[in-house]
Specification:
It is built from 15 helices and 20 strands. Helix content is 33%, strand content 19%. It is α+β, with helices and mostly antiparallel strands. The chain is elongated. A six-stranded mixed sheet has the order 12-11-15-16-18-17, covered by helices on one side. It has a four-stranded mixed sheet with strand order 1-2-5-4, with helices on both faces. It has a four-stranded antiparallel sheet with strand order 3-6-7-8, with helices on one face. The N and C termini lie far apart (66 Å). The protein folds into four domains: 139 residues, Schlafen, AAA domain (Methyltransferase, Cobalt-precorrin-4 Transmethylase, Domain 2, 2-Layer Sandwich); 53 residues, no CATH class; 168 residues, Heat Shock Protein 90 (2-Layer Sandwich); 68 residues, Arc Repressor Mutant, subunit A (Orthogonal Bundle), CATH 1.10.10.
C-alpha cells in the first residue's frame, strides 16, 4: 500500500469498515476493532492517524512488531491479519491492519470477548448473537448430514434407487457428464460418501434399514375425526428413506382427501378438482423432509388430517434468519441440510431459490383456497392448510378407474409389454411420480395392467401389459390418437 492509497482511505474518516488510532498505545482497542471487523464485513485499522484522518505516524521498531504479534495471539480462533507499513514522514510510519471478512470462521473473540461493529463504533457483541453465530459456525462445517454413517455400509444403500435418481437427474440436465455404474463413485459425486463410506445424508435418502440407529427417518400420518385428536379414523407410521416417505405421504393424502368432480356436457370423463393443489402439497412435504432438524432423534415428519384442516409438522424450528412471516414474502433460501436438498434438487423436486413457499401460496390462491399458515410451535415448524376435508370419512382400498383418453392410451399401448418410461411418454407426463400415482398404480390395482416380472416390482427389466379385463375397457373408450396433456 502506498501513501497515496492510504490517504484515499483515511480521508473519509471513521466508518463501519475503518478505525483510526493515534499509536500502538491504543493497541488493545485497535485489536478489539479488528475482532469486530472479523465478525463483520472486514475493514482497515490504521495506527498512526488522528480521528480527523490526519496521518501522524509513529516510530516502528522490531519490538513494536513483536508486541503486535504477541497481542494478536489473543484472537480465538486464530486470525490472519495482514500488517502493512506505510512511511508518512522521515522516521515515521503508519501501520495498517488489513482485516478480511472471515466467512464461516466467525465468531471471533479477542481475549475471550466477542466484538461487533455498529456504524463507526466498536462494542461487545450481545451474548445471544454470539451464541447463534457459534451455532451457525458449527452447523456449516460439522452438520448431522455430513458425518459418517456409523455401522452403515454400502450394502445398506439401495443401489437401484440411487441410480434411478441419478438417471433422472442426468436426463433432466441436472447432472452433467458421464454417469459411472460404480456406487461409491456416484455417492461421492453427490457428496453422499467420503473415503468410500456413506454419510448420514445417504442413509436419509437411500438407506435400506433404519432401526434403531436412525429414528429420525420416520413419517407419522393420521386422519382424525372432527377437529381435534380425540378419535383416529386411520393412522400409520413409516420408517424409510426420504423419497419413500414422500411417496407414502402423497398416497395417504390421496386416500383421505375428497375429490369433488363434475361432468361437463360433451365430454366422457369427469373433471376432478383436488382439495389442495398436488404440487403445493408436495412442495410442503418435500420442505419438511429437507429442512427438518435431523439432530432431533425423536422427531419425525407428521401429517395430520382433520375435518377442517391439514397440518404438516417438521422437527426443528426454522433456520436462523428465517421467520414464519418471511416465508410469505421474498426470502433467502437457507438450507439446513444442503446435501439432502441438493439431491432433491437434482431429482427435480425443488429449486434452490427460496421460492417454494411463494409458489405454494400462488397455487392455493389460483385454486381458490386460503394460502397456508406458517408457524413455529414448541420447536417445530408447522404448515396448516385450511380446507374442508370433512366430506370424506370412510377409509377404503377400493380402486375406481375412469376410462379417460389417457387411460385408454395406456391400455392400448400396453397390448405389447412396455416399460414405465414408454407408457409415461404415451400420456406426455414429465413427472414420474405423478404418472405412477395417477395411472400406473391404479391400473395395476384395478387388474387392468399386470407386471411381466411380478416378483420383482423394481426390476430394471420390468414391463407392463394389459390384461384381458383391461383390453375389454378399450371397447367404446375415448379416441386415443391424441390424448393431450395430462
Amino acid at each position: 500500500m502506498t501513501l497515496k492509497d492510504l490517504c484515499r482511505i483515511v480521508v473519509r474518516g471513521e466508518s463501519p469498515r475503518l478505525e483510526l488510532k493515534r499509536s500502538t498505545g491504543e493497541l488493545q482497542e485497535a485489536l478489539q476493532t479488528a475482532c469486530a471487523f472479523l465478525n463483520g464485513q472486514g475493514g482497515h485499522v490504521v495506527v498512526g492517524a488522528k480521528p480527523d484522518g490526519t496521518l501522524v505516524g509513529q516510530q516502528v521498531s522490531d519490538k513494536t512488531l513483536r508486541d503486535i504479534a504477541q497481542a494478536m495471539e489473543g484472537f480465538e480462533p486464530p486470525a490472519r491479519i495482514e500488517i502493512e507499513r506505510v512511511p508518512v514522514a522521515p522516521g515515521l510510519e503508519a501501520l495498517v491492519l488489513v482485516v478480511q471478512a472471515a466467512g464461516d470462521a466467525i465468531p471471533f473473540t479477542f481475549h475471550g470477548r466477542p466484538y461487533e461493529r455498529v456504524q463507526s463504533t466498536t462494542r461487545k457483541m450481545p451474548q445471544k448473537r454470539y451464541e447463534q453465530l457459534l451455532l451457525d459456525r458449527s452447523h456449516s462445517k460439522r452438520r448431522w448430514e455430513n458425518q459418517e454413517a456409523e455401522e452403515i455400509g454400502l450394502r445398506d444403500i439401495d443401489r437401484d434407487e440411487v441410480f434411478r435418481v441419478v438417471e433422472s437427474a442426468h436426463a433432466a440436465g441436472r447432472l452433467v457428464g458421464p454417469v459411472e455404474r460404480n456406487l461409491v463413485s456416484v455417492l461421492e459425486r453427490l457428496n453422499l460418501a467420503e473415503g468410500g463410506k456413506p454419510l448420514r445424508a445417504a442413509v436419509v435418502l437411500f438407506g435400506r434399514r433404519f432401526m434403531p440407529d436412525y429414528p429420525q427417518c420416520e413419517l407419522r400420518m393420521a386422519r382424525f375425526r372432527g377437529t381435534d385428536m380425540a378419535e383416529f379414523l386411520d393412522q400409520r407410521q413409516v420408517r424409510g428413506p426420504a423419497f419413500k416417505l414422500l411417496e407414502e405421504a402423497e398416497l395417504f393424502c390421496q386416500r383421505h382427501f375428497p375429490l369433488p368432480g363434475r361432468i361437463v356436457p360433451g365430454r366422457m370423463e369427469r373433471l376432478d378438482r383436488p382439495l389442495i393443489p398436488p404440487d403445493a402439497m408436495r412442495e410442503i412435504l418435500v420442505n419438511a423432509l429437507i429442512h427438518r432438524d435431523y439432530t432431533i432423534a425423536g422427531g419425525a415428519i407428521s401429517l395430520a388430517i382433520f375435518d377442517d384442516r391439514v397440518e404438516v409438522w417438521s422437527a426443528g424450528a426454522l433456520p436462523s434468519g428465517i421467520t414464519p412471516e418471511a416465508l410469505s414474502r421474498r426470502h433467502l433460501s437457507i438450507l439446513r441440510n444442503p446435501i439432502i436438498a441438493d439431491v432433491f434438487n437434482r431429482a427435480g423436486l425443488i429449486e434452490k431459490w427460496g421460492r417454494g413457499t411463494n409458489r405454494v401460496i400462488d397455487q392455493c390462491r389460483r385454486h381458490g383456497i386460503p394460502p397456508p399458515k406458517f408457524e413455529e410451535i414448541t420447536g417445530a415448524t408447522v404448515v396448516t392448510f385450511r380446507v374442508d376435508v370433512g366430506r370424506t370419512i370412510q377409509v377404503t382400498d377400493h380402486v375406481t378407474v375412469q376410462v379417460t383418453a389417457h387411460v385408454a392410451a395406456v391400455l392400448k399401448a400396453s397390448q405389447e409389454p412396455r416399460s414405465r418410461g414408454e407408457l409415461q411418454k404415451v400420456v406426455g407426463l414429465r413427472h414420474r411420480m405423478h404418472f405412477l400415482k395417477a395411472y400406473l398404480e391404479p391400473l395395476l390395482k384395478a387388474g387392468w395392467l399386470e407386471m411381466t416380472v411380478p416378483g420383482k416390482p423394481k426390476s430394471r427389466l420390468q414391463r407392463y401389459r394389459a390384461t384381458a379385463a383391461g383390453l375389454a375397457q378399450l371397447q367404446g373408450s375415448p379416441d386415443t390418437s391424441d390424448p393431450g396433456p395430462a
